TrEMBL record:
UniProt cross-references to InterPro entries, sorted A to Z: AAA+_ATPase, ABC_transporter-like_ATP-bd, ABC_transporter-like_CS, ABC_transpr_LolD-like, MacB-like_ATP-bd, P-loop_NTPase
Gene Ontology cellular-component annotations: membrane protein complex; plasma membrane
Domain ABC transporter stretches: 20-246
Taxonomic source organism: Ktedonospora formicarum
Gene Ontology MF, one: ATP hydrolysis activity
Protein name: Putative ABC transporter ATP-binding protein
Pfam families (alphabetical): ABC_tran
Length: 248
C-alpha cells in the first residue's frame, strides 16, 4: 500500500486517495499573561485504507492533536481535511454532523450506554442525521462482523472488557465513516484481549477498506499499524513506514 507523509502549507489539490490531510496545525492556550504552544506546526497525510498509529508520551501534544483531527477541538491555525472537507473552522453544529457521518470514534473506556443492549448501543449513532437502511439490521450486521452476534441482547455489565470494546468498534462503523479514530483502545484491557482487539482492527481494515488511526503511548500497540507517526514536543519527530519499528 502506498503511503506518504507530506508537509504542506496553504491550499493544494488533494488526491482522492487521501483520507486525512493535516496542514501546519498549531494550537496554543493561555497560561496567565502568556500563551503556551502545544502544537507547533504539524503536517501529514493519511491515505484511504491505511492503518496508522500516532504515538507520543504524556505532554507531547498527542491528545490535543487527536482532539483536533477528530473534530472535537479547533486549531489555533492550520487546516484539517477529512474526506476532502475542511473541518478546522466549522461551527459546532456542522462539526457534529461531520463527526456523525465521517468519523467513527473508539475510546479507552468504551463509552457504552449501560442501560442499552449491545445492539442498541451500536444503533445509537444511526438515529442522528440521515442514514440508509434499518438501524437494527445495520447493528446486527456489524456485531456479527466483530464476532458478537451471540451477544446482541447483552448489556455492557454482562460483557467482558474485550467484548465491550468490540461493541464500541462496531458502533464506530455504524454510520459508514471515512475514518475510525481509536484513542488508547487497548488501555483498559489485559495483554491477551488487547492483542485480540488490535487483530480485529487490522482484520476490519482489510474487510472494509476503512482508514484506522490509533493514538497510543504503547510502542507494542503502535507496531500493529502500517505506519507510525511519532509526536514529540508538539511536532512530528519521525515517521516509520515499515509498520513495526520506529527508528530511534
Amino acid at each position: 500500500m502506498e503511503t506518504s507523509l507530506k508537509g504542506v502549507s496553504g491550499e493544494q489539490e488533494r488526491s482522492p486517495d487521501v483520507a486525512m490531510d493535516v496542514q501546519n496545525i498549531k494550537k496554543s492556550l493561555p497560561l496567565g499573561r502568556e500563551r503556551i504552544d502545544i502544537l507547533k506546526g504539524i503536517s501529514f497525510q493519511i491515505q484511504r485504507g491505511e492503518f496508522v498509529s500516532i504515538v507520543g508520551p504524556s505532554g507531547s501534544g498527542k491528545s490535543t492533536l487527536l482532539g483536533i483531527i477528530a473534530g472535537l477541538d479547533t486549531p489555533t491555525s492550520g487546516n484539517v481535511y477529512i474526506d476532502n472537507v475542511d473541518i478546522s473552522r466549522m461551527n459546532e453544529g456542522k462539526l457534529a454532523s461531520v463527526r456523525n457521518s465521517k468519523i467513527g470514534m473508539v475510546f479507552q473506556a468504551y463509552n457504552l450506554i449501560p442501560t442499552l443492549t449491545a445492539q442498541e448501543n451500536v444503533e445509537v449513532p444511526l438515529y442522528v442525521g440521515k442514514h440508509k437502511g434499518s438501524p437494527s439490521a445495520r447493528a446486527k450486521e456489524l456485531l456479527e462482523l466483530v464476532g458478537l452476534s451471540h451477544r446482541l441482547n447483552h448489556r455492557p455489565s454482562q460483557l467482558s472488557g474485550g467484548e465491550q470494546q468490540r461493541v464500541a468498534i462496531a458502533r464506530s462503523l455504524a454510520t459508514d465513516p471515512a475514518i475510525v479514530i481509536a484513542d488508547e483502545p487497548t488501555g483498559n484491557l489485559d495483554a491477551r484481549n488487547g492483542e485480540k482487539v488490535l487483530e480485529l482492527i487490522a482484520s476490519l481494515r482489510d474487510q472494509t477498506g476503512k482508514t484506522f488511526i490509533i493514538a497510543t503511548h504503547d510502542q507494542n500497540v503502535a507496531a500493529h499499524a502500517d505506519r507510525i507517526i511519532r509526536i514529540v514536543d508538539g511536532l512530528v519527530a519521525e515517521v516509520d513506514n515499515a509498520g513495526g519499528r520506529v527508528v530511534q
